[in-house]
Amino acid sequence: MKNSLGREIPDTIKGYYKEVKAFTGAYDNIGDVIKTQVRAKSLMPGKKKLLNSLEEAIKKTGLEDGMTISFHHHLRNGDYVVNMVMDKIASMGIKDIKIASSSLFPIHAPLIDHMKSGVVTGLYASYMSGPVAEAVSEGILENPIIMHTHGGRSRAIESGDIKIDVAFIASPSCDSYGNINGLYGESACGVLGYAISDAHYAEKVVAITDNLVAYPACPIEISQDYVDYIVVVDKIGDPRGIVSGTTRITKDPIGLKIAKTTAQLIEASGLLKDGFSFQTGAGGTSLAVAASVREIMKEKGIKGSFMSGGITGYMVDMLEEGLFDSILDVQCFDLRAIESLKNNKNHQPMSASMYGNPHNKGAVVNNLDVVILGATEIDTDFNVNVTTGSNGVIMGGSGGHSDTAAGAKLAIVVSQLFKGRLPLIADKVTTVSTPGETIDVLVTERGIAVNPRRKDLIERLKDSKIQLVSIEELKEIAERITGKPMEIERDERMVAAIEYRDGTIIDVVRKIKR
């Protein structure tokens, strides 16, 4: 069958946890929903949760062949817990495990051997990069993996689409009864927003810590009433590995030009006024947009309400300068953000569900005025790909991209018109991560294109200094310089299904041909 974007979607997906529903529109599948029930086993007075080893914890959870386990990714490329747990599971002879990790990184390359041996037979993730992503793209698993948005992952867990048998939570600070935070200890990573749905809805929860503190841990982000067992290990990770991308403002003249133009566009949109809410990524150009917005706010005396998403030190600076009232943080992207979360009461943690779940009673993304987004590709219908690269290999994933685009009043994609010899704009993107109906503007160094759906914005910009071109014109400009790229050859076999945030299938990824 075809979904509303014209993408071919199979009627059935091998190993998929529910009936396949094709994407029909960004806001079509939102309404009354039922959350799953969770069984809780009472703990009697005098009983202890602290165990002697990881193996003992795995045995006590009752983990068996065919079950689903979960991990969070707040330690990003510094995480040791996924490999530690999977090595122990393999040594115990347990097989056919499905891993529901919020994201996977190059450090998780040892999972490939577990896939080859049959220990791991399925993956769910919002983002993946590195050797595991490459192996999946080459068809290492018999069944397709399932990729979500950050909010969509919480929705899937809370609805029971993904039933987690055991959640293993990397816990930078934990007491003997299972109260957890990410603020203290040698492996401090800040907020634990992606682990909260796992803790609340998993059948069993194991906290793995290298920093056992006196009861009660303070502050408490994940509380004792969700944690079954605690294991102390030597090290859960390297916090230096949490740093995402550059986390520094670009010095590239093209990137700076794009950033300045984007800030002028935001000002011309009428949204940059007192109460302004804002989200941007950690990449160099995105941070440069924030820098340009910051200057306008200072010049005009504008005070914003909140910034949200994954947080960098640069956003902390804007909070401390009084440009915004608060930060809502689902993930710390650098060590300065961790310190701010620890010390500033206006820097608040939030769960991934609060952040972007479309099936709760109101996600934070719905209150965003402006979000700055990137793109691997964008097509003439404004559909965006942030999942696969130019060679068709999985190299990312939606993360919060689709969630914020759907919620914000103004979703802006910023990118150079071509990178190397590859043009940004295609007739049809290789993989749809975010539907074009939720993307409002594309800003490049050679022009700004507004989605024709946004007639109100086009009309408003007519009286500004912002010069608009069509996305088709930008595509022609790029192809005159780079030429038209050859189409990627794909196998018929599907290696990944891409769920939109509401649980419908927005696209699939086919096996690459080497």
UniProtKB/TrEMBL annotation:
GO terms for biological process: acetyl-CoA metabolic process. Its EC number is 2.8.3.10, 4.1.3.6. InterPro entries: Citrate_lyase_asu, NagB/RpiA_transferase-like. It catalyses: citrate + acetyl-CoA = (3S)-citryl-CoA + acetate; citrate = oxaloacetate + acetate. GO terms for cellular component: ATP-independent citrate lyase complex; cytoplasm. It is found in: Cytoplasm. It holds the Pfam family CitF. GO terms for molecular function: citrate (pro-3S)-lyase activity; citrate CoA-transferase activity. Transmembrane segments: none annotated. Keywords: Cytoplasm, Lyase, Transferase. This is Citrate lyase alpha chain. It comes from [Clostridium] ultunense Esp.
